[in-house]
Amino acid sequence: MNSITSAARSTSTHGNRVAYLVVAAGMSAALHIWKLPPALPELQKEMGLSLVESGFLLSLVQLAGMTLGLLMGLFAEKIGLRRCVVVGLALLGAASALGTVVHDKNALLLFRALEGCGFLMVTLPGPALIRRLVESSHLSRIMGLWGTYMPIGTVIILLAGSWILSVSNWRMLWLLLAGVSFLMLAAVVRWIPSDPPRAAVQPADKQKNSAMAIIKTTLASGNVWLVALSFGAYSGQWTAVIGFLPSIYVAAGISGTTAGALTAIVAGANAVGNVAAGRLLHRGVRPKVLLCTGFAVMALGALYAFGLNPSATGKFIAVLLFSGVGGLVPTTLFLLAIKLAPSVRTTSTSIGWLQQCSALGQFSGPPAVAWVVTVAGGWQWTWVATGACALAGIGMALLLGRKT
Q1: What is the pTM of this model?
Q2: Virtual CA dihedral for 259, 265, 271, 274, nearest 10 degrees?
Q3: Alpha-carbon gap, residue 194 to 206, rounded angstroms
Q4: What is the signed CA dihedral for 61, 31, 36, 103, rounded to 10 degrees?
Q5: What are the structural domains, with CATH classification, of the chain?
């Protein structure tokens, strides 16, 4: 009996450790999303990008997620979660490497869209793959780490990317990140267990497990819609503020390296919030409390930072709280998406719909803020756009609290 128990514990521990590699794969994918902000001033000069065009360049990487998230979730379910991650990493590496040879902004936009497809294929299966690898008692904690894949990836690329750009150019940065993707691909193939063989489906269950039936079941769930739209409300404002932060600092006369470091600190605070959310959920704090707290502080932080024209230190602290306390939101929503999925078969499509709404927020957030800034002639009304997202998030969190 003791030997059986020890073997089970060993298997569980191995699964938990391998799950960290899934988180690392997500972080490596996030590097490609956030490699653009530190390089944006250089790209604007080289390719003559306007502020609105820059906003679309920031957000176009989310085009695949915005249009294909649900279908990609179904695709991941059909071909296997691990296999989907492998294909996504390969696509990220290839698109980033090919992007180094372009000299036209339209071609750069195309490769950014392809990187968006690769990013989606890596990150969309992540939560379901983690669920398959770890024990349920450890799920909330490891999902707290999964929620950090974007902010930690952001920190790494803002710091390392700013340094690389200070000694080289954006093409070298793109090429190095292609190499990172290919190395991560090799690690996933080596250490993450292969997808289990698909169980035979009885004729009576074929209709129930068909692609159309899975999609219909997913979209018929009100809980899935609330979780997904809440994520869109969060991601739109966070992406807009963090994405333009280096440009805001540079416009204020701060050097590119310092601007990247300050933005990295702000993004790193978001990772702390994600980990804290995982621990608080594990201890029984209600998701509604975490969601309302995160959205409320984001609204107040943006109002103070942009609307009240504080000192440089005050603005930095406000944006730090905006990102840090806002980090309570994504981990909570990822866990709710897993737990509120209509069935195990719809876990990937539920996460896919969440990613699709998240991508819609990330796609629309930066151009919307850029438009507000252009019309207002400054950043002082930024809080109106971000505050509207925060209020919508609080409303949906209250509805989720009633349903759950």
Answers
A1: 0.80
A2: -100
A3: 24
A4: -80
A5: 12-190+213-403 (1.20.1250.20)
